[in-house]
Amino acid sequence: QMADPFLYDTGERSHYGCLGHEVQIEHIKAYVCRPSFFTDKAVIVIHDIFGWLFPDIRYIVDLIAGHGYITICPDFFKGTDPWKTTDHWADFADWMKDHDPMKVDKEADVVLKYLKEQCGAEKIGIVGFSWGGMAVHHLMLNNPHLTAGVSLYGIIRDSEERYNLLNPTFFIFGEKDHTISYDQITLLEEKLKQYCKVAYKIKVYPGQVHGFAQLKPEDMKPDDKPYIEEARKDMIDWIKMFI
């Protein structure tokens, strides 16, 4: 049986009252939060395996919107069930076959079209966590319409095509993430140095486990809080630098 890769307990979460609203875009539902003023800058947030309804991801959407971006988290699972805390890890590989983070291109295009045509967005960035981090890595290799990306603890493995990024991308990792080995991060760094022609950054946050950067303030442990806040500030700073 596969070890549980999430050291945080997704069941013990405080409730979150969202600031945004839900919309239907073609075949996709999405959660949107807008700043109080007009902007032509937008950010797409890609959820982790727990899906677009998960309180932590909606908190992140609201947080980014608070920095002045139209922020949207589409349901990249297209109405199918996200992974649930009651599911068995033995079934995870099969679940992943039906929820492939490398097969998000169509949905990303639908959302990009909506942001450009309905929201007046000119510059669009993307941020993703875990499953979403892999999706961001994939999209930054394939979609030139995304001005900048932040991939949090999601790494594309077993592919030689993963280094030729089209636009600036920032990779965030936790030092104690046992789903991603240090060797994989080192390899990513070496290969990006070799092949990548755009700005990129890799940063590893001390003592942090998988999923650390999406916790709401009241769910953070005091020792982790400075690193979580730093990672979020770094994420926003990267977006602000390019968008």
TrEMBL record:
The domain of life is: Eukaryota
Where does the record place the Dienelactone hydrolase domain?
28-241
Which GO molecular function, any one, fits this protein according to its record?
A: hydrolase activity
GO CC term, one of those recorded: cytosol
| InterPro entries the UniProt entry points to | AB_hydrolase_fold, CMBL, Dienelactn_hydro
**Predominant cellular place of this UniProt entry's protein:** cytoplasm
Cellular compartments annotated: Cytoplasm, Cytosol
Family membership, please give it. Answer: Belongs to the dienelactone hydrolase family.
Question: In its UniProt entry, what is this protein called?
Answer: Carboxymethylenebutenolidase homolog
Organism from which the protein derives:
Sagittarius serpentarius
Per the record, the gene is Cmbl_0
